[in-house]
Design a protein that fits this description.
Strand order of the largest sheet: 1-3-2
Strand content: under 5%
Order of helices and strands: HHEHEEHHHHHHH
Helix content: 40-55%
Distance between the termini: 59 Å
Shape: elongated
Radius of gyration: 23 Å
Number of helices: 10
Largest sheet: 3 strands, mixed
Number of strands: 3
Structural class: mainly alpha
Length: 266
Amino acid sequence: MQGSDHAPPTSITVNHANLYKRGASLVDIFGPNVSPGRELLDEIQRIYKVPAVKNLAWFIGDGEQKAIMRHPLNSRRQDQVLQVYKKSVQQRGIIKGVRGECWVRAPNPENNETVYLALTFGTLTEAFYAAWADADRESYANLKLTHRVEKAWANHRLALGITARTPEYEVRYREFVQSNYPDVWTSFKHFEATRNLYNTLVRYQVLPDVKEMSEKHCQYLHAELAHDSVIYCMKELITACTSFFDAMSFHERKAIIMALTSCCAP
């Protein structure tokens, strides 16, 4: 790893021999004048950060071997948070840039290492793998459908140098979805609302009933019917009720969901 050749003025003196030495302290690496603060943080990033954002695969090759694991320095017990993150991953997937960037230590081929060690994103990474390992993962659209879309987007933005901090990032994403999947989604908002609604209907075991009702009674080919608006309205109405769904019986939930979805299209 290396930083810029043109370093800003600093009181820190870097000892390059100790950069990757196990057990080296901050003083050993950055000299006796080191002190906590912005200057030290900038110097750490300048020295250790690999230029440009890189896209990492979740798995090694075409198998199921994990490509990213929590770094020992990032060890923590967050069982409750992990479950919340897992549910979020199942419902919405992982949207790049929303939680910042994942910082990892790259594997050292000389030591036969193949796994990236996550200094950040440890819990979110574990949540993804937990969701993927579930037997019912095929019930969640974002783990199969959006995985394909987001992989294509990752390749596209890498080729064009687009990062999460690029101005109009969402606009570029929307344009990508519209141009590559025009027969499926009209926008990224439509794309996200669709997967969220799909996962919710699957979770409450009413997807077949909603599909049957829609096919029999909804005029989706009507010239004035905006499909994206229908999907978004369904998603918003059902989401507003999910906070008290757990206190209801299956039949009560089903009746409410059927009534709400039937109101969204003629």
